[in-house]
Amino acid sequence: MAILRALSDVRGLPEATVATRTDGEREGDVVRVGIHDASRVEWSVTLPLPKGGPLAYSIDVEMRIPSNAFARHSPWDQLQAFTRLDGQGEYVGDDSRISRSDRRPRGSETAVRIDGLRRAAIAVATQLARRADALARRCRAAKSVYYAGNAEELLQGIGQLLDEADTVVVNARRMLVDGGDPSEARELIRERRLVDEYVSVRLLDFLGGASRTLSELEGDDEEEENLLAACVGTLSDRIGDALGIEIDYRKSHHFLGVDAKRPGALERYLDRASLLKKHFQEVLFLEAEVFHVAERMHHAVASIGGIIAGMLAFFFQMFVASQSSIAGRRISAGLFMLAGVAGLLYAVRDRVKEIGRSWISGRVHRFYAQRVATYRAPARRIPGRDIVARARESFDQEVVELPDPLNPTVGATQMATRIHYVHKGIVQPSRELSASGVDRVKHVFRYDLSPLFARLDDAVKQVPIFDEKTRRVRFIDAPRCYRVPVAVTVVSGPERWEAAGIVVLHKRGLERIETTNAEDALELEPVTGLEPT
Fold it and tell me: Are 446 and 16 in contact (CB under 8 A)?
């Protein structure tokens, strides 16, 4: 069970929170907001791949950072965004059947089969993830006061999910790993081994997550503990047995081991798991073509400024020359004046360039966008590199006054910097992607908040308390945290989804995210909008 605990504790940060629709219906597959790592907050949006015409959508994200903690930075430098294909993950058989739609003249047959293997491995991972979510839902329902079932029903339901996960892994290994031809290419044989290792990693994640979820079922009182103790014990033993079998399988195939007593081994295991995940998910990523509108317009503004300054200098020179022909005694003074005005015009030209650059950076997004992105299908999947999605993106920063949270009615205010991100796009239908099992497009965004850390107070501060035993004052360490509300809104046609949370952070990084709704996260409305930062 030590290995189970090691697998359960391998993720130190909280999982992303699931969004809720505005009508109260749970919709975890549309928008999520959470913490990716110690410095980045993440939000993701999953949209359906349309069957008919294009699907228009918009993503609106708002963060409010206390001005005393805000560090001036470029939001585009802190944003990481990528888009990938997604599907229900239905596994339909061996790799030759999965990649049958790809068998057309577009490169090496081995490369086509490898892509089919990678997509099949992703489908297996999705199947395990769906069963992990179902197991978590059953456990949450068992803890609810409205749960009408009993321990036997819970044991049967979770046991069925464990059986299904085991069947998924067994079938995947039989079809994808053991179903190959010994005479096939070396690259394909190596890819089958990587599939085997990746499926093993995902199974370990599934078992570790199931163990963690079951540990939360332990009752808070004796009556509840008596009802669930037998069920939790039986399931934990079963998970432990499954884990032991998988560990033996990994040893027999010389996969990287997991040893709870060796931190270095756990570190290497995490590195290997990360590499495997990136290797297989890479086949789903779309190719992004991005350009910044403001940067391209800067050159045009600089050229226009130079042309205007040159024209003014030319006309002034003509004017001085004409005056000189009339009054020759003023030639010397005219030359001095020409030189002075020429220098002034060059200074004005630079000023025009700076004013134009500032105007573009602050205003162009209101008319069009600051950045335009086009996402294309990879050439190895669709030779024509069809466009799957287009998007226009903009960032806006401004300082706002918020009512004092302690007593809003007295007129006291607090300053905050509002970061507003807008993403408006269109998803195009694709028959070839739909035929290969793709039915969704997923946007993932990560925003780095590390520029704030240097402006924050110490992560731990000492607080005096009264010790009743010694009748003296003693000091204890208390965390000094800051809170940044984040709200994400997705609109597509008549439908609207919202997700929100409050990111709790300190000088050492992001601590956790507190789930809330959009209205509560941004409860204090700004009083006055000030000049953009």
Answer: no
Q: Name the β-bridge partners of 87.
A: 438
Closest alpha carbon to 165 in 213, 199, 120, 119:
199
SS3 track for 241-285: HHHHHHHHHHHHCCCCCCCCCCHHHHHHHHHHHHHHHHHHHHHHE
Distance in angstroms (rounded) separating the CA atoms of residues 241 and 237? 6
CA dihedral 300, 305, 308, 312 (to 10 degrees): -160
* β-bridge partners, 441: 47, 85
- Phi and psi based region of residue 184 (left: phi greater than 0; alpha: psi -120 to 50; beta: remaining): beta
pLDDT tens for each residue of the chain, 533 residues long: 555 555 545 444 344 333 433 333 334 468 989 888 889 999 999 999 998 889 999 999 999 998 888 888 888 889 999 898 876 544 444 343 443 344 333 334 677 688 788 888 888 988 898 888 888 888 877 776 556 556 677 788 888 999 999 999 999 998 888 877 777 888 888 989 999 999 999 999 999 888 888 887 765 444 445 556 777 788 888 888 998 899 999 999 989 887 777 777 888 888 999 999 888 888 788 888 887 766 666 566 666 666 666 666 666 666 656 655 555 544 455 556 666 666 666 666 666 666 656 665 555 555 667 889 999 988 777 777 888 899 999 888 888 888 877 777 777 788 889 999 999 999 999 888 887 778 889 999 999 999 999 888 888 888 888 888 888 888 888 888 889 999 999 999 889 999 999 999 988 889 888 877 655 666 655 654 444 43
What is the number of other CB atoms lying within 10 angstroms of the CB of residue 312?
16
Distance of CA 170 to the CA centre of its chain: 32
Cα 355 versus chain centre, distance: 35
Say which residue the tokens 């708002």 belong to.
62
Question: Would you put residue 387 in left (φ > 0), alpha (ψ -120 to 50) or beta?
Answer: beta
C-beta of residue 168 within 8 angstroms of C-beta of residue 128? yes
* Cα–Cα distance, 62 to 518 (Å, whole number): 10
Question: Which runs of E-coded beta strand occur in 409-471?
Answer: 413-427, 438-448, 460-467
482: nearest Cα among 73, 34, 66, 67: 66
CA distance 390 to 406: 44
CA distance 63 to 293: 24
Distance CA 81, CA 137 (A): 30
Residue at 470: amino acid letter: T
Two tokens, residue 12: 């130190």
Rounded Cα distance between 193 and 186, Å, is 11
